[in-house]
Each structure stands twice: as C-alpha cells, then as structure tokens.
C-alpha cells in the first residue's frame, strides 16, 4: 500500500504537481527517473564496492579521514545510545570511514550503512549523501524522501565538507535505521553534522596553513579562539589562498574568493593581523565587514621554519613574520636572521636605530616568531613605577615586555624596572632606543638586564630594498592599478628620509589623498619636509630648553649624543657658566 502511494507520488512529481516535499527531493526523484532510468518499485540491495576498490578510495581520502577522525569520534560520543550511525564518504559517495553501534552491525551492513557502500545518487537514488553531493548543501533525506523502496525506513542527514580551495571533498552523514515520522525530529542531527563538518574544514585549513597567516572569525567573542565560524588562509600580501566554506558568506555573493585581498572586503589588512593575535583581549579584536557588520577576529601567524640541527644542512630561507620586514637588503637580511635565532631564546634585546626605522615593528615580529603568550608595550617617556607595574600585572606567565624609547626612562622608573625584572623572571624585555648604546644613560644594573645584545637597524636611506618597501607600502594603501612613474620613483629613492619608514608612510598617504589618476608622477609627490628645528640655529635653543643635558637634547633632536657634541664643537657654542 505504502509502496503504491510512494510510486504515485513520484509520478505526480514527474507531472509537475506540487507534493509538499523539499524541492531538492523532487528534483532528485526527477533525475532518478529521467537521468538514471531508475524504477522506485525495484528493491536494489546496497551497492558495496570491492575490497580493492575500497582500499583505493580510502587511500585517496587518507588525509580527510585523518582530519575528520577526531571530529567524528566526538560527534559519535554526543549521539551515543541513540542508534545513530556516522558515515564519512568521499566526493564519489563511497563510505570510507564509519562509526556505528556494534550491536546492530548486521542490520547496518544490510542497509548499506557501512564501510564501502556507495551512496552516489546515480546508484542509490535519492539519499542523504547523494543529494548532498549534488546540491553541495546540508540535507535531510527522511524515510519516504528516499527514491528506492529499500531505503524508505532510513533517515539520513548529510553535510558537505569542502577543501580549502572550495571543492567538495567529502560528506559527513548521520543516519538512523528507524526514526520518528516527523522530519523535524532530525533538526538536531542537522545541527550536529553541519557543525562537525565545519570543524573538519577548519582542522584541515589549519593543518595546511602552517607557513601562512590564518584569520579566524566568529560572531561571538567566547567562541572565537575555541570554535570559530569561518577562516581564511592568506599569503604575505593579504590575498586569500584558502578558506572554509562558511567564509563565503563574508564575500560579496558570487564573486571569486581565492585571490581577493582581505582589505577589499574587510576593514583589516595583512599588516593589522598582529593586532588580532591571541595576546590581545578578544573584545578588542574587532574586524569590520564590508556589509557594515563586524566580527571578532583571531589571527594566527605563520610558523617560522625550524633550522635543521646538522651544521652541514643548507640554510633555509628566512620565513614567518620576520621575513616580511625586508626585501633583499643584505644588512637587513643578516639582522633578521640573527633576530630569528634570538627569537627562540629569552635573551633581552636592545634594538637601536633612528626614529621611525621600524624598531617596534621588529620587536613585535621577534615576539611573534618566539610564540611567547603575553605581550605588553610601554612607552618609556613619562612612564611611572605604578604605570609599569600596572602594565605588567595584566599578564601572567611568559611575557614579552616592549619598552619603547628606553632612553626616555626616568631614574625612578629605571629602578622599578630593575626590581620588576628580578621578581618576574618570565618577562623578556625587548627595548628600542634611538641612541647608540654607549650614549644610553641608564643605571648599569638595568642596562645589563635590558641589553643581552644589540640589534642595530639601518636608516631607510641606507637600505637597498627601499624600492621594495615603497611598493609594499603602496600596495597596502592602494589598488593594484595605482603605480609610480619612473621619475617619481627615482625622486623617492633619492630622498634622505630623516623620519624613515614613518615618513615614507606619510608621504604615500598624502600623495594618494591628493592625486587623482592611476599614475603617481613627480608633481604629485609632496616636497620633503625639512624640520626647521633640526638646523644648527636651533641647537642652542634646544640645549637651553634641556638645561644643557646632552642626552636629553639628543633625544629631542632624534640624533645621538656624540652628534650633539660634534655640533656644539662645530658651532662654538659654550654652556652657560
Ligand atoms: N618593514 C616594514 N614594512 C612596512 N612598514 C613598516 C616596517 N617597519 C616599520 N614600518 C612602519 O613604520 C612606522 C614606524 O615603525 P616603528 O614604530 O616600528 O618605528 P620605530 O623605529 O620604533 O619608531 P620610534 O623610534 O619613533 O618609536 C610604523 O607605522 C610601522 O608600521
């Protein structure tokens, strides 16, 4: 009787009459008859591939089985005792992994809910796995939704799993041999299976992205770090090179995702990613979306490659966050290599160089390469003992303490810092300073607690990768079509850049704001700003303002102490008696 009704319903669907079934079910019935020539009255047994074929399918899906295993195990634990069976099939519909209750193994085998069964639509008719492969969407195929007579007691809920390039690669199916009549009884199963599929995609993306940035996103701060909703894998320029399926929702409908730069769709660029790392409070890691909404972001930095232990092993090129700081300048290359080795130690580092040359940026990169949990920055100008303590109390455990412009530290703060470092051996100080270490006026007890070794950064005018840096900063600010004319480039390369990278950033910002067209030409560039206070005329005023304290005057002018002494001698200035 039931069979006759089922056949009649299929006939009505073929005639185009509405029957109240989900549209994907009616469409699948139509394919079963019109495309695969199936007969709903035939009670075909389950299609099981041969032992050798199963081996081949499992071998092909090996990496997916491994990525999905722990997800499947935890899902199976969640439904334990409720007679559910879990199948992982490959993109052809062949079951390559299976979790079911041993008590019902014979029944499950008989129904095809077992390893090696082929649930592709053209063989099994309308079924959960088959419909999921065709629609690439999660589906529930409940009881008489099935086309074939043999399966109308089953309820199957299936979710697709995509690889990081957006290709359907597997299906996760949760099935019941017998289920309540209402299809809505499977809503919870649908939730479980789609969440499990999302986690498998996430695990797979993370496993293949060790050398790239990953940005994970969630609408809830509580789940951001533990169970994010979507993730994108990014290359060094911020272009998407992989994604989990749910990340599609973040991009404009239908537009390709691979190759898009994230700053075209979100309010963050690749350079903002360090601010979205785990050492920052979750609530502060907000990413604005193109549609006006916002999500919480968690950026995971590329791992730097570990050097082989053998001294004979060829040197691997520098990788990870440090590699992005220079583009072929030999001096910077050596400096970054040293920084990378030191990043794995607890040695306190003093990073010196002119203002704006990237000392803080380097300190941050060293911290990230070393993968220490906590990160605190304090500005030494105006730093009080209380301020220092309060900043460091924010973290417990291994922490990097970035001391910006350590030459500006007061004596009181210097003493406090020395005792703090004695109390907290888990704090690693990284200090930046615009003076030569020899001119640094710090109590020697503190100096040696801060300076295990010096990393001296070159000024921008001495860097051979200036052209690379100009392009890098330009690309971050403007679309690919905007470029520099050769004469504009030559002009920028010939400047002296007293403000270093900070000045370069400002020049590019001003240029882009004021110029129209897609080519930046010489007249579009702002003239270099020579600071009036840097001339010899103002030296006396500066010295007077600093009570003739050479170190202070040097700080004010952004030069080192010996330069001040030289200028004083040259200009014949005499301190007041
Ligand atoms: N390698 C780099 N690539 C692109 N931008 C950089 C790089 N290094 C630094 N910058 C940018 O240049 C500016 C100055 O960098 P940073 O604050 O690290 O300099 P600093 O030497 O610590 O300056 P100061 O001594 O004045 O505190 C920042 O806006 C930073 O983002």
TrEMBL record:
One of its GO terms (molecular function) is sequence-specific DNA binding. GO terms for biological process: phosphorelay signal transduction system; regulation of DNA-templated transcription. Coiled coil: none annotated. PROSITE patterns: SIGMA54_INTERACT_3, SIGMA54_INTERACT_4. It comes from Tritonibacter litoralis. Pfam families: AAA_lid_14 (PF25601), GAF (PF01590), HTH_8 (PF02954), Sigma54_activat (PF00158). Residues 325-513 form the Sigma-54 factor interaction domain. This is GAF domain-containing protein. Keywords: ATP-binding, DNA-binding, Nucleotide-binding, Transcription, Transcription regulation, Two-component regulatory system. CDD domains: AAA (cd00009). PANTHER family: TRANSCRIPTIONAL REGULATORY PROTEIN.
């Amino acid at each position: 009787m039931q069979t006759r009704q089922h056949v009649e319903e299929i006939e009505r669907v073929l005639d185009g009459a509405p029957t109240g079934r989900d549209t994907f079910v009616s469409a699948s019935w139509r394919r079963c008859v019109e495309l695969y020539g199936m007969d709903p009255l035939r009670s075909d047994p389950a299609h099981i591939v041969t032992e050798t074929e199963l081996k081949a399918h499992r071998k092909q899906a090996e990496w997916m089985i491994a990525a999905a295993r722990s997800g499947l195990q935890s899902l199976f634990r969640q439904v334990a005792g409720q007679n559910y069976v879990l199948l992982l099939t490959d993109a052809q519909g062949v079951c390559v992994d299976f979790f079911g209750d041993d008590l019902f193994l014979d029944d499950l085998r008989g129904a095809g809910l077992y390893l090696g069964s082929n649930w592709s639509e053209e063989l099994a008719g309308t079924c959960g796995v088959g419909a999921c492969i065709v629609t690439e969407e999660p589906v529930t195929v409940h009881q008489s939704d099935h086309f074939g007579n043999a399966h109308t007691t089953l309820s199957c809920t299936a979710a697709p799993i995509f690889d990081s390039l957006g290709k359907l690669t597997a299906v996760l199916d949760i099935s019941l041999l017998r289920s309540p009549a209402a299809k809505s009884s499977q809503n919870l199963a649908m939730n479980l299976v789609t969440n499990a599929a999302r986690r498998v995609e996430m695990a797979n993306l993370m496993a293949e992205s060790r050398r790239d940035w990953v940005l994970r996103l969630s609408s809830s701060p509580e789940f951001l770090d533990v169970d994010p909703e979507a993730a994108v894998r990014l290359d060094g320029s911020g272009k998407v090179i992989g994604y989990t399926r749910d990340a599609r929702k973040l991009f404009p409908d239908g537009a390709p995702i691979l190759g898009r730069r994230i700053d075209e769709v979100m309010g963050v660029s690749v350079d903002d990613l360090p601010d979205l790392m785990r050492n920052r409070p979750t609530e502060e890691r907000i990413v604005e979306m193109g549609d006006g909404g916002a999500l919480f972001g968690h950026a995971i930095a590329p791992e730097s490659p570990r050097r082989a232990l053998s001294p004979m092993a060829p040197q691997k090129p520098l990788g990870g966050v440090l590699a992005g700081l220079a583009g072929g300048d030999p001096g910077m290359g050596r400096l970054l290599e040293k920084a990378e080795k030191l990043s794995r130690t607890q040695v306190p580092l003093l990073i010196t160089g002119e203002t704006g040359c990237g000392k803080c940026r380097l300190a941050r990169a060293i911290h990230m390469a070393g993968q220490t949990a906590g990160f605190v920055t304090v500005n030494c100008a105006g730093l009080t003992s209380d301020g220092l303590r309060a900043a460091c109390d924010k973290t417990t455990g291994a922490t990097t303490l970035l001391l910006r412009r350590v030459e500006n530290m007061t004596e009181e703060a210097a003493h406090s810092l020395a005792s703090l470092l004695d109390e907290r051996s888990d704090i690693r100080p990284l200090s930046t300073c615009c003076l030569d270490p020899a001119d640094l006026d710090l109590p020697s007890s503190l100096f040696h607690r801060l300076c295990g070794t010096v990393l001296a950064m070159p000024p921008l005018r001495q860097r051979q990768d200036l052209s690379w840096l100009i392009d890098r900063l330009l690309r971050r600010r403007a679309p690919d079509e905007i470029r520099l004319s050769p004469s504009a480039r030559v002009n920028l390369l010939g400047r002296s850049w007293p403000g270093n990278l900070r000045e370069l950033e400002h020049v590019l910002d001003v240029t882009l704001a004021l110029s129209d067209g897609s080519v930046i030409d010489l007249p579009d560039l702002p003239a270099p700003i020579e600071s009036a206070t840097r001339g010899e005329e103002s030296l006396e005023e500066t010295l007077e303002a600093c009570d003739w304290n050479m170190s202070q005057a040097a700080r004010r002018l952004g030069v080192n102490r010996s330069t001040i002494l030289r200028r004083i001698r040259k200009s014949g200035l005499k301190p007041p008696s």
